[in-house]
């Protein structure tokens, strides 16, 4: 076995390399599924917004298929949906224009994989976001989590004139600290 | 960092902890709860797939990809290496993105207030894909050291930031490549945040005469071992 290489912080100056115009928009006109905006803030231990974090998401298409050869349904995955997005948190926080993923068996409910990088984080943090309009206790991972703390993984659905918005804050530390996983 | 018995992707005897007080910004950003073990589902065993169409012809050459009216100033370097998995196999198709300060130690980023000159012919960002054997190659300028306000008289050693996206969500690394013989490494709380000297030293590239091009550029070799789930493996039934 070779020893894995250690992580180092993404630092404060990554945006010009990693945050590309449109990198937070996962959909085009032909993408199948319900259009949603997933937005929120990354908060530090003082509850202050972190304005130099990077959030990455990875998700299935509207039918719960991943555009990746390890998915047995890869060939049927939506060609208009790659499933990966990146957003910096300058200003308002992070924001993704995407679709509500379909559930991926054996889970009957959808979720999105999330990774957070920031100055002051020598290594990224991995989490997941679920949706408030589903019975997430049916999900095998969610069901196994602390019943109080797991609420930190649920994005709240808001139906606005402009469309469906899911609001979800990531708290790195302290009261209401988001559950982070050891993948 | 996690419960005993869970064998996760990351080896916490090698990876830096969230809280490393000498790096002051970790104090308010480090999670306090232990990480919760996660048995990877199909979601973590898949990830974005990149191809040649995602990369432009000059993306790997930072001496050319932002040139306006000449060559960037500084010491020209070639940085090359192989991305391997923990079994020592080359990993193809890894998206490697790099970013760095210019020769004077200044980033183009708007929040960089270091009083050092910008270079009109250098942005300091590049990207490439590893080939079928896991090899990559960048051409750039040796970055300068730069001050930061972590503590009195704090200077970052010269470094190039690396971001790697491997074959699935679990295969992900953001790190920094350093240069051999840099006296600042000893004083750098980011580098020193890695829990042991052996693991730290892996981030120091090696000067390589084979890579060095006569009358043109110095060569540095930087291999990277990327942890993650093997993409060829997934459980029958698809989860
Ligand atoms: Fe830097």
TrEMBL record, chain A:
The keyword Nucleotide-binding does not apply. Residues 38-66 form the Intradiol ring-cleavage dioxygenases domain. Keywords: Dioxygenase, Oxidoreductase. Signal peptide: none annotated. It holds the Pfam family Dioxygenase_C. It is an enzyme of class 1 (oxidoreductase). InterPro entries: Intradiol_dOase_C (IPR000627), Intradiol_dOase_core (IPR015889), Intradiol_RC_Dioxygenase (IPR050770), Protocat_dOase_a (IPR012786). GO terms for molecular function: ferric iron binding; protocatechuate 3,4-dioxygenase activity. Its EC number is 1.13.11.3. The keyword Oxidoreductase applies. It comes from the Bacteria. Belongs to the intradiol ring-cleavage dioxygenase family. This is Protocatechuate 3,4-dioxygenase alpha chain. The gene is pcaG.
Automatic annotation (TrEMBL), chain B:
One of its GO terms (molecular function) is ferric iron binding. PROSITE patterns: INTRADIOL_DIOXYGENAS. Gene3D superfamilies: Aromatic compound dioxygenase. Its EC number is 1.13.11.3. InterPro entries: Intradiol_dOase_C (IPR000627), Intradiol_dOase_core (IPR015889), Intradiol_RC_Dioxygenase (IPR050770), PCDO_beta_N (IPR024756), Protocat_dOase_b (IPR012785). Keywords: Dioxygenase, Oxidoreductase. The keyword Nucleotide-binding does not apply. The keyword rRNA-binding does not apply. Residues 79-107 form the Intradiol ring-cleavage dioxygenases domain. GO terms for biological process: 3,4-dihydroxybenzoate catabolic process. It is an enzyme of class 1 (oxidoreductase). Coiled coil: none annotated. Belongs to the intradiol ring-cleavage dioxygenase family. PANTHER family: DIOXYGENASE, PUTATIVE (AFU_ORTHOLOGUE AFUA_2G02910)-RELATED (PTHR33711), INTRADIOL RING-CLEAVAGE DIOXYGENASES DOMAIN-CONTAINING PROTEIN (PTHR33711:SF10). This is Protocatechuate 3,4-dioxygenase beta chain.
């Amino acid at each position: 076995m070779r020893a894995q290489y250690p992580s180092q912080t993404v630092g404060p100056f990554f945006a010009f390399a990693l945050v590309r115009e449109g990198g937070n928009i996962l959909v085009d006109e032909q993408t199948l599924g319900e259009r949603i905006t997933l937005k929120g803030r990354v908060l530090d231990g003082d509850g202050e917004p972190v304005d130099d974090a990077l959030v990455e998401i990875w998700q299935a298409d509207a039918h719960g298929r991943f555009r990746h050869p390890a998915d047995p349904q890869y060939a049927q995955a939506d060609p208009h949906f790659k499933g990966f997005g990146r957003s910096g948190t300058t200003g308002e926080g992070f924001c993704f224009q995407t679709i509500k993923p379909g559930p991926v068996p054996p889970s009957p409910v959808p979720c999105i994989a999330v990774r957070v990088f920031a100055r002051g984080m020598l290594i990224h943090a991995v989490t997941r976001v679920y949706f408030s309009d589903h019975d997430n206790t049916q999900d095998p991972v969610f069901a196994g989590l602390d019943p109080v703390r797991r609420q930190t993984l649920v994005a709240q659905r808001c139906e606005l004139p402009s469309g469906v918005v899911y609001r979800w804050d990531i708290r790195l530390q302290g009261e209401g600290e988001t559950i982070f996983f050891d993948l | 960092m996690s419960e005993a018995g869970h064998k996760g992707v990351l080896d916490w005897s090698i990876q830096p902890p969230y809280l490393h007080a000498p790096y002051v910004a970790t104090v308010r950003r480090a999670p306090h709860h232990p990480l919760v073990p996660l048995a990877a589902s199909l979601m973590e065993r898949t990830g974005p797939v990149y191809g040649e169409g995602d990369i432009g012809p000059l993306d790997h050459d930072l001496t050319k990809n932002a040139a306006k009216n000449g060559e960037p100033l500084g010491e020209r370097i070639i940085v090359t290496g192989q991305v391997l998995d923990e079994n020592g196999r080359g990993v193809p198709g890894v998206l490697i993105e790099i970013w760095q300060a210019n020769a004077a130690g200044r980033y183009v980023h708007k929040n960089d207030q270091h009083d050092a000159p910008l270079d009109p012919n250098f942005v300091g960002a590049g990207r490439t894909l590893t080939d079928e054997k896991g090899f990559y190659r960048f051409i750039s300028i040796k970055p300068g050291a730069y001050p930061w306000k972590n503590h009195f008289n704090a200077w970052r050693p010269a470094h190039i930031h690396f971001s790697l996206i491997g074959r699935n969500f679990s295969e992900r690394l953001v790190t920094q490549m350093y240069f051999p013989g840099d006296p600042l490494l000893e004083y750098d709380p980011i580098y020193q945040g890695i829990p042991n000297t052996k693991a730290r030293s892996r981030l120091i590239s090696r000067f390589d005469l084979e890579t060095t091009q006569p009358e043109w550029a110095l060569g540095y070799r930087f291999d990277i071992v990327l942890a993650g789930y093997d993409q060829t493996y997934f459980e029958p039934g698809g989860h």
